[in-house]
Amino acid sequence: MDILQSLQKGPTEILNKLASIESRITKHEGMIADIRDSLGTTKKQVKDLGKIVTEHKDDISILQKEFKNLQAKNVDLENRSRRQNLCFME
Predict the structure, then answer these.
(1) 38-53 in b/e burial notation, b at 16+ Cβ within 10 A?
(2) pTM of the full predicted structure?
(3) Residue 47: CA atoms inside 13 Å, Cβ hemisphere, count?
(4) In 10 A of CB 74, how many CB atoms?
């Protein structure tokens, strides 16, 4: 009789375990979908930040050139002003 009862419980236990496995798989599929969405958003943000960094690099390059030009202009103007302050005595 015990064998018969255990044989009758066997399929029920298997079905319960399968239902539990299916439930966990469904839960994990949902988590994977959330991770994919998050990854897509992160990729877009990284791409956007890459564009911004490139723009800033270009701006910095332009500003560095302007700074060098202004430094050269400043040196030239200082030198010109010194020339005007020279007094020659005879």
Answers:
(1) eeeeeeeeeeeeeeee
(2) 0.57
(3) 6
(4) 10
